[in-house]
Queue: 3 jobs
Job 1
Amino acid sequence: MLRFTLFRVASLVPVLLALSVLVFLVSHFGGGDPVHAYLGANASQDAVEATRARLGLDDPLVVQYWNYVSGILTGDLGQSLSTRRSVSSELATRIPATLELALATVVLSILIGVGLARAYALDGRGAGWLRFVLFSAASAPAFLVATAGVVLLAVQVDLLPVSGRTSYGASEGLTGLYVLDGLLTGNLAYSLDALKHLALPALAGSLGPGVALARVLADGLSTNLASKHAQTARSLGETESQVLRRHGLRNAASPALSLLGVQVGMMLSSLVVVESIFSWNGLGQYLVRAINTADTSTVATVSLLLGATYVVINTLVDLGLAALDPRARLS
Amino acid sequence: MPSSPEALVLRRLGRRAVRSPGRGAGVPRLGVRVPYVLLGLLVLAAVVGPWLSPYRTDVPSGEAYLAPFSAGHLLGTDNLGLDLATRVLSGMRISLFAAVVVTGVAAVVGLVVGTLAGYAGGWVDSLLMRVTDLFLAFPATIVAMAIVAGLGPGLTSSMIGISVVWWPLYARIVRGEVRRASRSLHVEAARTSGTTGWRLLTRHVVPTVLPTVLVTASLDIGAVVMTLAALAFIGLGSPAPSPELGLMASGGMDYVLSAWWIPVVPGIAVGVLALIFNYVGDSVRTTLRAKEA
């Protein structure tokens, strides 16, 4: 297991390197001229050249790449060409916002997944219809769930707020996760308000992954509980709950965890959509704004950040899988 | 943008062991033929519908703005007085076309790369598979977003961006199948009877791989539809007033409080497309399995 862990962690390096090269090249060769976007269309030739030199855009490609990577490694993410502020300082408040939403989305996905898996595995009248409804729900795009949620829960019954992270303003320092900050400072009303603001965005991001998780989990459970080894275990006198724990859940957890790993990538991209719908001041909204203002270097930085997060999470999932099932270490 | 869980698990497991996951026991049955009938109706509506409609997608009818469902406007009108039903049908036509092209390109590129790697073996195999693994390790949609942002927004850019991140899955699957097929009895037999090279490949190896590619592709189209819609939603698709479903939904969000149908109707259209393709993929698999058995 130690060798496997070391191998998986070491193999992160070339992947992250390749991702940075890819993102760098895309932002370098694609899109418009960042200098013109920065100075405006009427800039003089002299000003353009001076700015190019100042931003290091005249350097050889390898030097530019080196500056880009070493900047990222030292935490200097450069300046946003559209807002003219340092990207690091803008990200400092946005990363916790996205982290809070992402955590809520993952937790809610798992709750939905495990909860529905039981309903899904049910037999009897109405089960077919339930499956049909759930199967359909998995095909709903995040923005439809978000819109429907706004229409039903926010507009019709006025139960939940439609945008922002809180009605009060930024939390007092600490973690930047508003719900947690409220709890840490003993301000329960603040936490509750932040939680209410979290509900719709998290639901929009987690319904699809949750239903998908439920299907895989229910499928794995029903297959494993009917399998030969489960029958053997029963005939050897294990109780049904022992069979469920040792042979059902353990074997069904592996594909479910695997799916959850893939879904993280899906969630990251649906969070981009969800954040822009709910004016959630996070990375996704920042990325959309950078894309729409042709701020290519910021697009590159944020996509690299999201990409790297995904790669790291997937490695963690692989390690988790290997811990659950030794066969996964054989690759 | 979730698609069928099987396709997702396959995408991930593709890196390690290539196998088709078992048919989800929990998938509700519609029969084998119903999905094809639904798909036929959908294609018919998307192709013929906009043409039969008395309205155009870009010219306001001039009578009603933000109008709810009525006999004159079956799905209501938007803030410019454009008929939503007409625009949604045109949008489905765009989505269908784009998703089929993207999936087709990804499947063909993946088929070529995978066959080459699996058949050639040696360093060609190692090189191609390292590149493929690299692509599979990236979060597909985020990389697609970066590519589209780099190329400049537009439907063509979105299609290119998604194709670039989608082919490696096929390459992985095809490579595994080709290696298995190369060792199979009937290819061995063809080889001993003197068939070699190109002919062996196209006549005996590739045909055994095609069913798997077809199943994966038909399960994937729904996911591509959703990805395209998401890219259009965040402004990476065609500019307004194109009737792209994601674009219509994001533009409609401004009116969600007064005229909820403007963002909801195109969103439902995306969901319906994805759902029908999920069912079609399931049916293709069932049909091919039955043939094999």
Note: Chain A touches chain B through 73 residues (CB under 8 Å).
Job 2
Amino acid sequence: MTFETALHDPKLCRVLLARLTRALDGRSMRFMEVCGTHTVSIFQSGLRSLLPASITHLSGPGCPVCVTHDVDVAAFLELAGREKIVFATFGDLLRVPGPGGQTLKHAKAAGAHVEIVYSPLEVLTLAVSNPDNVIVFPGIGFETTAPAVAATLLTARQKKIKNFCVFSLHKLVPPALRTLLDEEGDNAANIEAFLLPGHVSTILGIAPYAFLADKHRIPGVVGGFEPADILLALCRMAEQLRDNAPAVVNAYPRAVNDAGNPKARALMEEVFITTDALWRGIGRIEQSGLAVRPDYADMDAAVRLGVRLVETPQQQPGCCCGDVLKGRIIPTTCPLFGEKCTPAVPVGPCMVSTEGSCAAYYKYLEH
Amino acid sequence: MDTCLLLDAGSGGLASQRLTAQCFLRHFANPLLARLDDAALLRDVHAPIAVSTDSYTVTPLLFPGGSIGTLAVHGTVNDVSMLGARPQYISCGFILEEGLSLELLESLVQDMAGAAKEAGVLIVTGDTKVVPRGACDKMFINTTGIGSIFADPTPSGHNARVGDAVLVSGALGDHGLTIMGSREHLSFLSDVTSDSAPLNHMIAEVINAAGPVHVLRDPTRGGLAATLNEISEQSGVSMLLEEEAIPVHESVKSGCSFLGLDPLYLANEGKCICILPENRAEDALAAMRASPYGVEAARIGTVVGDKACRVTLQTRIGGRRILSMPEGVPLPRIC
Ligand code: SF4
């Protein structure tokens, strides 16, 4: 039995479910997972159908595609449509609708040169084989992706590859969680515990989440992605709530070091600087994004190609992506869900990405 | 002789004749084709007849486990077979891009000939067009297959009945992932190979051993998920599958988990789904496993009566979820 199979073992899962039920002791628990990969795993493994009915599962702002703002989508669509530009992107950005429902697929059909890549380093190969074009890579993702993109910039500089630049839309997880919890009144988040992202935490470690427990008295547990990993994390949350002892802990030590990965953080810091960023459905969050440092301006698409950010009209009327991302509602509560908004004709980005919570509800649950 | 294809070769004149003689007639060699009349005369196709056509535009032209040539034969042979027919003859239309390497063309034609030989079908008529550079991507092939139906009643997507067993002839996802891997040069996928194969002989054995089956389908584009959802809709039934029982190679599982793809949504080119009464499932499975293309055949689920026409998966940890119809092309995720 491989390690991964072991973590799908029905017996082990039953033991953990029993521990979870005991820890809940009849109480309810509203937890939010921050990472899109958790969302998919919870649905795909069937774990959701096994969770005690008193658990409410919310999906947070952790799918990089879902939180990309209309203004940014409009900006990269404009970039992709320019002459002598090759827009090299990860595949799932192709279907993300910008203003007026336009996507990279539309841009491609209209003649834009769009290439799907699988790693940022692959983009450099493209650059070398397309010397007459400028290759633009949209830097979309969280702390997990940013170090690899930083490494790519450094490699490009070292290899003197001049026709490559990044449109950095990277976002940072802790400031987003802070914003969710700082909302007050009607907008106040109703989240009792966080399942913290496994991949992001390999870079950050656990210290940046300390405010969850210190300031808000909310448990935060870093968890892995197999069903038993997630169940273990849920047990730890429920036990902290039962004992009224909230803390930020690491329940995924086989991948996450409590101190994170300082080398990867150093790479990020070398190339990027924190800046305000726009989050779809949430709005502007201070110091929650990464921009390319002026030292690397020649590889900053925003500077080199003069990207213009233009205010876009309000997102589609009726789309509740913001409320979904903040965990205030579950997707099926959105009036457009499954009727006007489906993965075939997505209205909001939460329905586009395979890791979006609306798409997961649509794909895996009866409706 | 030229090393690459010139527009002349599609002119209908001497250049065309040379290409036909040196490449197509030579490798597809059979008396019906050799007559070179405007149409092929077929005397031994008996009603009811199954006819199927498909166009092949795969990039890259060569991939681990096959090529556009083998695919153009296997795909059409399999489609005809799914009606409980014995595929006999194939027509093929080539659309070739000016400048195509003649050596490559010939090797792909040889692949077609080899695949046809294995399947026991003859390529009896064809057409070649050469289009200017840029008007197509190297090479497109259309094939049409024809064959007499021997299964009575004929299998159909409308015939799944409550209580039937759902079988699949082997592991899923290999072809789709192989194409993605070789198109994008993903070195970590170097150990996956397309399952492209002719299924006609295996299907004949299955029907011999288990009698007429209710449904036969090959889960090509959209994979198992799309095919089973279509059958559920057509037959007005639901299905319950056991995730644990669905064969998927480890290499495909790990490649998919890296790319955020689901093997049950990836294309297969050498697999069939067979739905038949429960009491004949073991016979059908034994017949599949006796074929080199069905060694990993497995029973993966049951047809159930729920009128909602949905396919539900009982997961490895004992939970349940829907296996829904796919949307568009699977795209690898960010992360
Ligand atoms: S269902 Fe569609 S419209 Fe509603 S919140 Fe989700 S993505 Fe937005």
Note: The longest helix of chain A spans residues 227-242.
Job 3
Amino acid sequence: MAEFLQLVFSGLTVGAVYALVALGFTLIYNASDVINFAQGDFVMIGGMGTVFLAATGIALPLAAFIAILGAVIVGLLLHRLAIEPARGASPVALIMITIGASIFIKGVAQVVFDKQFHSLPAFSGDAPIAVGGATILPQSLWVVGTALVLFVGLYLFLEKTLIGKALLATAANRLAARLVGINITIILALAFGVSAAIGAIAGVVVTPITLTRYDVGTLFALKGFAAAMVGGMGHPLGAVVGGLLIGLLEAFGAGYISSTYKDAVAFLVILLVLFFMPRGLFGGRSVERV
Amino acid sequence: MLAAALKARFSPLLVLALIMVLVPLIAPSSFYLRVAALVWIFALAALGLTILMGYAGQVSLGHAGFLGIGAYAVAIGPAHLGLHPLLSLVLGAALSGLIAFLVGRPILRLKGYYLAIATLGFGVIIALVLHSESAVTGGPDGMSVARLTLFGWRVSGAQNWYWISAGALLIGAFLALNIAASPTGRALKALHDSEVAAAGTGVDVGAKKLVAFVIGAVYAAFAGGLLALMNGLITPDAASFMHSIELVAMVIIGGLGSVLGAVVGAAFLVVLPQALTGLQEYEQAVLGLLIMVFMIFLPAGIVPTIRNWLLERVS
């Protein structure tokens, strides 16, 4: 039982990060129909940026803030310089553009930063908290807590603010949104900026646990993507449930079956979900129109 | 006359053969022949992807997985099963085609992003298996590949491999051009334009997509086998996600659906790292930038753009 509980804790911790990445995917996908493969690299920028800024003597919270700001700027540039000029391109072309962006960001990161693994000190100590025979690291609570705050914040932003509603309107029908006077370009830039911020914040809080390197973004992106897809592409709640589900399955897979194939779990889940429920858990039925 | 030549079915083959004969004449050292052989081999893999992506319009972000299967077949066959390398090459291609056949049915029902992510997941799983089953595959360090011997002749040296890979590519290009002109090729083009319209005219959309997927997998496995035999060493990197992306980039940068485009794209992505050896740490950044720039500003790819430009000029 203690082992089971331990796996649940570690599954929920990484699952919360996957959920955040998936939420970033969902936000951009809803606003622009683009699947942003560079989403995982925002996580890396958040983590690596904080590590290197903190190393220059800047206080950790300020370093994290600057790193998150940096990721937002990268997100806005990505939209302005790569997505905006390719408007109307096919899905495959858009996939390749964001994959190119992801490769480019990693390439620049290994020059600007380095190729080593880095870590951050845990925010509130390393003393494990005992719960029912298992233990939780205080940093795990930070991760899950941050994720919760971001989920609620994003929900309130989308449902209660005018800009948030404009974003939802754009997602629902771009032409209609334009007709009622919503500036689509600004809304799309906003989606990229917010989604970069969410990724970078996830990167800052998870780095003390998982470490970070210039190329950690790939796996975060792929697993976050799996999470978004399991939940049903474009559903914020689905993204959260999908993220936690993939985190838990991965933890159980590593704990009970084989830790070598831990990374395969997410992809097996993607393949199974796509075969049996192509629209994901929360996706509706789709009808092809001619 | 030029217009007719540009439209003739086998003129790409002629251009290709001409380049293949010319390269050894101007190559200053055997190093350049080796790079050229790599170009031919990757062009072969890209050709398979051209049939899948360019003809049938179906994306695969896990194509390097099939390349890995072919490469490891020629490494594992002789080392663990005592098979002849050539037989292993053929068996590897057959195995790759069989796996494509089995996973292709369910995967190809998906479209757009979903298809991209399913093929990506498939490729990552293959790479992970090659990485983890150290007892058979040698793990992350990979394994060495026994030299190819044909009737007592040990095949080695850049020059021999240059001609072997060039021959393989010519055969591959010939087959690809024939497939394009065959009923299957026409069916693929039809379903590329509109699946519903193709199905309406009696095309078995699912079966035709599967055919393209299997052919693409066999091409990739052959290329992988040749690559492993030439290098004498293979690592799980051959099947990596990054490699799959490079293959897709070759097809798109060269020109989607163009046989010569696959070769030009392969040349571009194989020669680029060689040209950047002094600036190795910037290689990844340059690659990413190039993919973005091409996708945004030259979405049709190099060869079709030049071809259309020439056609406009002469007609």
Note: The interface with chain A takes residues 53, 59, 61, 106-107, 109-110, 112-114, 116-118, 120-122, 124-125, 128, 132, 194, 196, 241-242, 245, 248-249, 252, 281-292, 295-297, 299 of chain B (CB under 8 Å).
